[in-house]
């Protein structure tokens, strides 16, 4: 165990796993949940019918750009986590369920300078790839282009530069990013955005939030020590539990409201019922029984189930109406 120039604790593994693997871990390539927004966007276009070369090219370019975006975001988050010591606190020896190898800067397999170069390179890659997606897309409404640009700028500034997550924007950012990553590619391909697309984008964004709030609960002490004001830090333990319950309930309310307002078919709540049931189990596991990291893992699984439910809903609705959603 050593200390870097910023005073953070670095825990070096006994054997280096190589630079390439370290960069892959820095980019968090194993966490693909935000990338699933493409499946939702595509299904909103009646996926079985929209397999032309232009559609596939836009989705491929936007998806590769998203890969770069997430890599830049997680890289700069790790740089800040190293500098302020929060990763050392949250991934240290007192947190055995956390894998230190997931933090290559903390593990000593990459230097801070290497990470910063990688972060800016992947951000530039996102600009080029999303620019290409806009160039080949059949539509380029200003709001879709602006949404994509806002996603990139705020992602880079999430923990670095302006540090949005250090100014109380973390929870809002998670939902907004998910929403943007659905409606931006959908707008490039459809040229418009429907009420149901906005509902699904919001539901998609709630997924990362509803496993993020459990991570924040687990990391409360470390975040408080470095001045990162998550809801878990700003409220009491009871207040944080109420917040988690409220956000969980918002998901169900949004599903019901979409149907009641005519944005979704009458059977939409039935299609999303497995998600609602899993969300209840997640709340009981994490909040009632106190198994925070187990609840976080269940939240990841629930998000993926939600994506499947949304895609199936869109495909069935497209088949019934003979067109897009």
UniProtKB/TrEMBL annotation:
InterPro entries, alphabetized: UbiA_prenyltransferase, UbiA_sf, UBIAD1
Bilayer-spanning residue ranges: 55-76, 118-136, 142-160, 172-189, 195-214, 242-260, 266-289, 301-320
Compartments in which it is found: Membrane
Pathway info: Quinol/quinone metabolism; menaquinone biosynthesis
Highest taxon of source: Bacteria
Main subcellular localisation: membrane
Keywords on record: Membrane, Menaquinone biosynthesis, Transferase, Transmembrane, Transmembrane helix
Entry membrane topology: Multi-pass membrane protein
Alphabetical list of PANTHER family matching this protein: 1,4-DIHYDROXY-2-NAPHTHOATE OCTAPRENYLTRANSFERASE (PTHR13929), UBIA PRENYLTRANSFERASE DOMAIN-CONTAINING PROTEIN 1 (PTHR13929:SF0)
Identification of the protein by name: UbiA family prenyltransferase
């Amino acid at each position: 165990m050593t200390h870097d120039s910023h005073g953070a604790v670095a825990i070096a593994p006994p054997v280096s796993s190589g630079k390439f693997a370290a960069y892959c871990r820095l980019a968090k390539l194993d966490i693909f949940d935000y990338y699933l927004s493409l499946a939702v966007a595509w299904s909103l276009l009646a996926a079985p019918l929209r397999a032309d070369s232009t559609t596939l090219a836009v989705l491929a370019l936007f998806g590769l750009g998203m890969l770069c975006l997430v890599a830049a975001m997680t890289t700069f988050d790790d740089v800040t986590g190293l500098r302020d010591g929060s990763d050392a606190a949250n991934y240290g020896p007192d947190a055995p369920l956390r894998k230190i190898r997931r933090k290559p800067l903390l593990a000593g397999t990459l230097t801070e300078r290497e990470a910063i170069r990688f972060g800016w390179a992947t951000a530039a890659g996102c600009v080029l790839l999303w620019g290409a997606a806009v160039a080949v897309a059949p539509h380029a409404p200003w709001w879709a282009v602006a949404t994509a640009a806002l996603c990139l700028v705020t992602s880079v500034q999430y923990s670095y530069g302006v540090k949005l997550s250090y100014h109380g924007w973390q929870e809002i950012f998670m939902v907004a990013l998910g929403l943007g990553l659905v409606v931006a590619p959908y707008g490039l391909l459809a040229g418009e955005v429907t009420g149901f697309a906005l509902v699904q984008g919001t539901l998609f964004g709630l997924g990362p939030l509803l496993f993020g709030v459990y991570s924040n609960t687990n990391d409360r002490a470390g975040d408080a020590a470095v001045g990162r004001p998550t809801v878990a830090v700003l409220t009491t333990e009871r207040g944080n539990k109420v917040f988690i319950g409220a956000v969980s309930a918002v998901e169900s309310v949004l599903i019901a409201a979409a149907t009641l307002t005519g944005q979704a078919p009458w059977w939409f709540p039935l299609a999303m019922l497995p998600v609602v049931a899993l969300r209840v189990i997640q709340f009981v596991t994490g909040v009632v029984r106190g198994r925070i990291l187990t609840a976080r893992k269940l939240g990841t699984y629930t998000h993926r189930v939600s994506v499947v439910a949304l895609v199936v809903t869109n495909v069935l609705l497209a088949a019934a109406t003979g067109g897009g959603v």
